[in-house]
């Protein structure tokens, strides 16, 4: 790596790395380190009356207080932090004190991984600590961590820029308290849900991510190409149609935690790549699924938080069953005064426009009703609420309502103003299903790029017979947001999708050569912030001369400094070149 691409701290740390190696210390040892204790467990089990306990711990140095022959450091492992007391004579009982005087005091840095063998004790100030008897370097950190300081309740140098936090999640997890806990809870959510399904006797399965037809939802897919088969394929938008094929095949209940991909917008509650859970159970209906869902969510909340209530922003949300239930028609009527019952497409479009909702001629009845509900109703449902009995145009995979053929047996669960779950009494009539697919194709021809494509193999599967079935999908990322009190989806994704990092445009050495700049000085100019010949044309020659000569000295580059006249000529030549290009 070019020395000029490094910060001063990075250069110093690389020097420490070399010095360790010169002393015969491997800064990246391969051997197992025999950890037998963890920080939180040490503190929780310590007793002043118990026999002295020997421990072997390992982790990252997060702070140091060096005080002559004795020092303290704070060690952070995967579970927490603990203080380590280091005495020079205990660490180096012989004549050679270099492990303490040189390695610990001068060559180790905050962020380095070390192993410590010693015993647990309580300091005079009452802090449970580890008294080090042995110290082993496990990994040298070449980049300094951002050090977050808290004094008198005020935080300084916080690593809180969302752009940096999401892009460098590995740093975020190290320095920001509470971030790791979010992802520990995320795993607990999955484990709790999986346990609930397994105890009910349902089977976890896997279905294809690459699909020849993107089915099971209304969404715009990502498209790729399979070279060996020479066919276009789609990243799945849902796994519904494959899971229902398994019900046809004889499974009573199947579920899958799936990565789904929808080539649509990004905001605080949407990410193009997201995790969904879908479950299908034979011989059940959507009424049973509502009961099942609310019992499941109550259990998850208890397992994750020890209570059925969570605080999200200013709202306290209760997952104590049962949840409120209201029909789609009544919800829209309640919030807008408009009754969607019996209205045709044009009447719905006119009503939506009258409510100030932006609609267009490509939208069918289902889309129009969906827009009304989304704009005027959805945000009002903070406490868990089942919205039931959707119009048939909104639900191409759902069984017609047993009491009203204009409706379907479907519910969506709204929590904190957003959809969390979607469920049906599944459509198992192959003729009805085919006709619904045909209607979706009509919408596609009108310009709806989210309309479903006819999946003829799925129709064929239904023709072999699928028992009455209820299915439910739940957005796992949104569920984790609720269970951890987060208001943005990026906070619960370890590595959310982001634009590529912006890289400063830099001219190559040949471009500078036309202005008379020697090749060896190009990296120095760019270190000084002159990344292009165009920037060189506007530089202050006197300041630039001082800057580059200073860098030559600071980084010990041992280049022969140019004269002030040389630098003036570089600037003048590049300015002349810029004028010629403008003409």
In short:
The protein is an alpha+beta fold and about 575 residues long. The protein has 20 helices and 20 strands.
Are there runs of 5+ residues with pLDDT below 50, and where?
Answer: none
Biggest sheet, spatial arrangement of strands: 8-12-13-20-19-18-17-16
Mean pLDDT metric: 93
User: What integer value in Å does the Rg equal?
Assistant: 32 Å
* DSSP summary, beta strand count: 20
Which percent bin holds the helix content? 25-40%
Instruction: Quickly count the helices.
Output: 20
Describe, in plain words, how this protein is organized in 3D:
With 583 residues, the chain is α+β, with helices and mostly antiparallel strands. 36% of the residues lie in helices and 21% in strands. The strands form 5 sheets. An 8-stranded mixed sheet has the order 8-12-13-20-19-18-17-16, sandwiched between helices. Strands 1-2-3-5-4 form a 5-stranded mixed barrel. The radius of gyration is 32 Å and the shape is globular. 32% of the residues are buried.
Topology:
Blueprint: H1 8-22, H2 39-45, E1 54-67, E2 70-76, E3 81-87, H3 88-91, H4 98-107, E4 113-122, E5 128-139, E6 149-151, E7 154-156, H5 162-167, H6 169-175, H7 179-199, E8 203-204, E9 210-211, E10 223-226, E11 231-235, H8 240-248, E12 253-261, E13 273-282, H9 286-305, E14 309-312, E15 315-318, E16 324-327, H10 328-336, H11 345-354, H12 365-376, E17 385-388, E18 410-415, E19 418-425, H13 430-445, H14 456-463, E20 469-475, H15 476-484, H16 509-513, H17 522-527, H18 533-537, H19 541-554, H20 564-582
Parallel strand pairs: 3-5, 8-12, 16-17
Antiparallel strand pairs: 1-2, 1-4, 2-3, 4-5, 6-7, 9-11, 10-11, 12-13, 13-20, 14-15, 17-18, 18-19, 19-20
Helix pairs in contact: 7-9, 7-15, 11-12, 13-14, 19-20
